[in-house]
Amino acid sequence: MTAGHAHFGQGLFDFLRELRQNNNREWFQKNRARYESDVRDPALRFIEDIGPGLKKISRHLVADPRPIGGSLFRIHRDIRFAADKSPYKTAVGMSFGHDRGRAGPAPGLYLHLEPQQSFAGGGVHMPDTATVTRIRDAIVKDTPSWKKIVSDSRFAPMFENMGDALKRPPQGYAADHPFVDDLKRKSYVWHTRFTEADVCRGDFIDGYLEACRLANPMDRFLATALGAPW
What we know:
41% of the residues lie in helices and 11% in strands. A 4-stranded antiparallel sheet has the order 1-2-3-4. The chain has 230 residues and is an alpha+beta fold. A hairpin with a 4-residue loop joins strand 2 and strand 3. It has one domain.
């Protein structure tokens, strides 16, 4: 892909900022047209346009531009069991999952757009015990490949730990393993941040794809560990 018309404009971030201050149904209904023109529709176009680029990274990644049930997360929050009854999310989320779906765990990609908090990410987030064990076993079994991936100078800054980690090595794993801190992780994810100006650039789609390409060796490693095609 090459630089072209920007998918997102400042209107997206302006809307989200105002929604944060007016998170109620009355305000949203009055501003629904802004949501559709500045947030929803640009996101759906981005999802449709990025599909071919993602297929070059892995033919198993899915970019689904349907407004409901596709890659774009719904704007409505599930407040049934939440203490916070604010009805709307104040960020935009897009998930490019593995076509394996519910057939088994696999890495996927994510894009999060929020004022001053936009980022790309991917990997396997908070897997169950069996899944995280398979990843840890793969790191131990093929430590040289893992070392090559996480030691790459371009990718290493993207592999900062997000979320909780074990305080001690998991049971059954050596405390002196050279990547024991990685074995302590509960999630195997990567992320890289974007400024609002980055997101509004005409070549943002290329910047997002480049981040996904840099992280692709890790996602491929995770897929292999989990027996998922990549």
